Amino acid sequence: MQVVTPLFHVLVFPGFLFLVAFGLFVSWVDRKLIAKFQNRVGPPILQPFADLIKLLAKEDIIPEHADRAMFAVAPLIALAGVVASIIYIPLWAPVALKAFSGDLIVVVYLLTLPAFALFLGGWYSANPFATIGATRVLSQLFGYEVPFFLACLGPAIAAGSWSISEITRAQDNGLWLISAAPLSFAVAMIALIGKLERVPFDIPHAKTEIVTGPEVEYTGRRLAVWKLAFLSETIVGAALIAALFLGGPHMWGLPYQAMPAWLTAIVGMVVLAVKILLIVFFLSLAQAAMARIRIEQMVQWCLLWLGIPALINMGVIAFVIRQVGA
Amino acid sequence: MTASAVLYHPVVVFTLCMMAGWGVYALGRALAPASRVIGGKLKTYACGENVEGESFPTAYHLYHAAFIFTLLDVVALVLGTVTGTAIVWMVAAYLLVGLIAIVILFKD
Amino acid sequence: MLDGLVKWARGKSPWVCHLNCGSCNGCDIEIVAALMPRFDLERFGVLLEGSPRHADVFLATGPMTRQIRDRVVRVYEQAADPKFVVAVGTCGVSGSPFYPGYNVLGGVDAAIPVDMYVPGCPARPDAISYGVLRLLATLDPKAEALVKEIEERYDTEGLVYTPEEMAQQRDPVEGARG
Amino acid sequence: MAKLSFPVGPQHPALKEPENLRFTVDGELVVDADIRIGYVHRSIERSCSERNYVQDMYLCERVCGICSNAHTLCYAMTCEKLADIEVPERAQYIRMLMHEFERIHSHLLWLGVAGHEVGFETLFMYVWRDREIIQDILEMVSGNRGHYAMTTLGGVRYDITPEMADRIREGLKVLRQRAERYADIATTEATFLKRASGVGVASGEVCRSLGAAGPTARGSGVPFDIRTAFPYLKYHTVEWQVRTSELCDVLGRTLVRVLEVIDACDICLQALDIMPEGDIQARFPRKVPEGEAIARVEAQRGELIYYIRSDGSDVPARVKIRTPTLANLPVSLEMLRGGQIADIPIAFASIDPCFSCTDRMVVLDDAHTGEARQMTWPELVKLGRQR
């Protein structure tokens, strides 16, 4: 059992299979929402699943000048980085499957892996569009990564811990940390758009400029793994923000004490799913309402209008804690 | 260390996930038709035109952003590892560094 | 079972790539119009992809000009199997009315194999949607039911031709030219 | 530092048409831009000399799928000048209506594509949804969504009935409101402004010296419009103004186009009210007297010129077409140089390029001396189709 349970957790639930399935569902919600905003009907519910199967069943092409190993491994790194981080995020109870001091840092760094993988994949595709896309991925990372990190540190300082599970548990009293770190929350949401490379920050993938950027040469199953990595990243990023700012699987007013353990787990899961969908709703809304901006505009804007508010919020929290602590 | 502690270690989890991704590849290999190389299939895609060259290195001009990113990221990592009351001073110092960095960035 | 699943997925998820072989834009804007709110091809899973590497179905328009021919062939070759081509518009079908011109090689099939023909000048968005659906019906039996339903409700005579039907239509013309 | 050079086109998602732009970039900065055209050369001008005047009408219509009516209008005007035919009043009004309908449809199409180029998909979808109103009107009047075949030598083919006029009025009123809304979006949406303002700059001076035409020039404050400079049809009987913008950038061109949509709606509404009753076609002879003529119209992309020389037979000796995109290309390269990669699609699209109008063929005997030669039709066919 000692071996089987962790394997099950990593590969089936809440790890790989669950994440992929839920990610496919959420990407349908996303596409449907955008279609509705744009006055269209939108795709049927099984559409992302059909897309995945179709991509898997397509021919696989590796361009002659591409670095074969890098080309093949890059999507896997992206997917693995995202899926691995779900283990440390609380999903159905305020405690994750595995919690240790500093797991917040580990998760934040695991979530930067897709960006680096995308850079490598694009760079080693040996394609001019992919190369430009790859450099854009890195430039964009410089823009959103620091504000995202700073925004995540806000609740960490407020809760006095670097463990996501500890931070979530600190919100058990019903006081969500969004109240202590509203600016950090806003910054984290906007930085998440950058992290997921969605409009207005879909600069590395800009279809009309550089075709699709880094994954332009990818076909078939390798493209499918990229898509899986991106849609899992949506889930994990949203779950992380929910855990840090919105009490994770916790909802005030629900009689947790009166429920049996299995029911609290299910309720917690549903609550978290609703929060994730709300965050995705925000992402879709942003995508529908804005145009894509340029890379240098993005980097400057992010460091200025995301970096400074996040810093200010962090400073205020640190100052208040010091006063209270003294 | 128990088996579960080892299996939940980030490195092990990451490796397991890589293997799961490899499983997706294997599934794809089973479903997809065999690759037929005809004509310019393996050529670099460049809108239908022919491009010469095996790699396409490009210039980079956002070094100041890269510099600030590295600076702040490393300091943030240091911050993440301190505990106790020292954190308040660390945050203050960090704020200072951050503000200086942003001033440098927007100087011109 | 897996085979059925793959067929279903292919029928459900055609990502299209637009391939202009020297067209006058008339059909091209109608292709885009087919993706817009009024017709919304995304209902059937159609997505407009930029890179031919990601595409399943090429919507090719225009008479094949001499200049574009090699590029079109290369782009077609660079797409991953299985791939399909829908020739959109009368020019895409036969090169008409430009055909006798010195720089026009004929329809899209002068360079790449075509799986479905949608005539019209310009082809209407609904005809293009119907053409794509007819193509999908050859992949997925479930899409066939949808096409049957459409054919019962609307007059679809002459909107779309399969390569066999087109060959029958064409024979006398080819004879006259030859 | 290594400079990267890459092609955009002939098959590229930003371009709906096959043309080849080659860029040399330094990081994200465009150092040099060059253009290669000719992918859509379909031997139209030469084919015109192989067919009679009526057949050429349908060939010229298919020069471009977006401005097809402007082409037939200009072609018909040239032929009528040659044959000295007076077109009936009502036909002139209907021609003007079609001309403006087409301007509305084309400008809306452009606005949607501009939204697409900067990743603003919702604008794209909304504009194209509203564009269906004018498409319905065009279909109601002419029977087709594109290539309307409305103009004919000596007049127009179909009349506009009172019921049609009422439905047109209804549709145009809605469109006018929507166009005002889009003008509002274009000037207030922060992300769109970031992408349009100060991008693709070409001063009025540059536009004049490089011979830009249409909204591209008017967006840089050059108040040149064939409709007022060389009046044709019935534009002098309705009230409207030439729209210009001093912004000289993509935003300026966007505003000019959106305002022109509003103007076009006004022109059509006025024309529907003052249109006289009467014939819609004059008889046009099969053979045209010897001579040559030029006509120019303000197509939606700028000045369109037709030159026809007749040798007295039923087949024109020479048809020459000068399209606005050809005039705007030099300016567009100026806009691209020194800009950013991200601005390529929108800056290039801002001239509303149309390559199906533009592509020509030159045969060089000797690429070094640039010596050209004349070729006969069979020689051309042999050259074009040989493999």
What does this structure look like?
- The complex is a heterotetramer of chains A (326), B (108), C (178) and D (387).
- Chain A is mainly alpha-helical and 326 residues long.
- Chain A is 68% helix and 0% strand.
- In chain A, helix 4 runs antiparallel to helix 5.
- Chain A is globular and about 60 Å long.
- The mean pLDDT of chain A is 85.
- Chain B is mainly alpha-helical and 108 residues long.
- Chain B has two domains: 33 residues; 47 residues.
- The model of chain B has no long low-confidence stretch (mean pLDDT 73).
- Helix content of chain C is 46%, strand content 12%.
- Chain C contains seven helices and five strands; from the N terminus they run αβαββαβαβααα.
- With 387 residues, chain D is α+β, with helices and mostly antiparallel strands.
- Chain D has a single domain, classed as Cytochrome-c3 Hydrogenase, chain B (Orthogonal Bundle).
- Chain D starts with a strand and ends with a helix.
- In chain D, 57% of the residues are buried.
- The model of chain D has no long low-confidence stretch (mean pLDDT 85).
- Chains A and C meet through helix 3 of A and helix 1 of C.
Number of strands of chain D: 10
E-strand count of chain C: 5
Give the count of helical stretches of chain C.
Answer: 7
Structural class of chain D: alpha+beta
- Based on CA inertia axes, which overall geometry of chain C fits? globular
User: Which class of chain D in CATH terms?
Assistant: Mainly Alpha
Any guess at the CATH architecture of chain C? 3-Layer(aba) Sandwich
Cα Rg of chain C? 16 Å
What is the CATH class name of chain C? Alpha Beta
- End-to-end distance of chain C: 49 Å
Strand order of the largest sheet of chain C: 2-1-3-4-5
User: Beta-strand percentage of chain C?
Assistant: 5-15%
Task: Tell me what the CATH architecture of chain D is.
Answer: Orthogonal Bundle
* Helix and strand run of chain C: HEHEEHEHEHHH
- What is the strand arrangement across the widest sheet of chain D? 1-2-3
Ends apart, CA distance between termini of chain D: 41 Å
Tertiary shape of chain D: globular
Q: Unreliable stretches of chain C, pLDDT < 50, 5 or more residues?
A: none
Work out the oligomeric state of the chains in this entry: heterotetramer
Write down the domain tally of chain D. Answer: 1
The residue ranges of chain D in which pLDDT falls below 50 over 5 or more consecutive positions are none
